[in-house]
Amino acid sequence: MKKTLIIGASSNPERYAYKAAERLVSHGHEIEMIGRSSDEIFGQVIDTEKKAYTGIDTVTLYLSSKFQTEYYDYIVSLHPNRVVFNPGTENPEFEVLLQEHGIIAEQACTLVLLGTGQY
Predict the structure, then answer these.
(1) Residue ranges of domains in the chain, CATH in brackets
(2) What does the alpha-carbon distance between residue 38 and residue 32 come to, in Å, rounded to a whole number?
(3) How far apart are CA 37 and CA 24, in angstroms?
(4) CB burial of residue 43 (10 Å; 0-12, 13-18, 19+)
(5) pTM (global) more than 0.85
(6) How far apart are CA 30 and CA 37, in angstroms?
(7) Residue 3's CB: how many other CB atoms inside 10 A?
(8) pLDDT tens per residue, range 6-37
């Protein structure tokens, strides 16, 4: 199982970040979440601060590129294996930075990856 950090997490069931959290948990993946508002979903807290999580395999982004800049150094510091850029979050500048640090930058949809067994 791949420990996943969801950035742009939401407690709104209509949001894709919420659906991704739900699906990740149902597939047995451990999750951590950072969002704009503190809340709790699926027994997990949505943090509002960047914490020094350990063992993160995948970061899945639900933030548009204009809000990602403040997360560049933070995400690199977590040393994930990959960062998933969900539809609408594509960011060529950040993808290059990640690749320079040996982190896979993947333009994909977390929900589709889970649904097709490719996560």
Answers:
(1) 4-115 (3.40.50.720)
(2) 12
(3) 20
(4) exposed
(5) yes
(6) 20
(7) 16
(8) 999 999 999 999 999 999 999 999 999 999 99
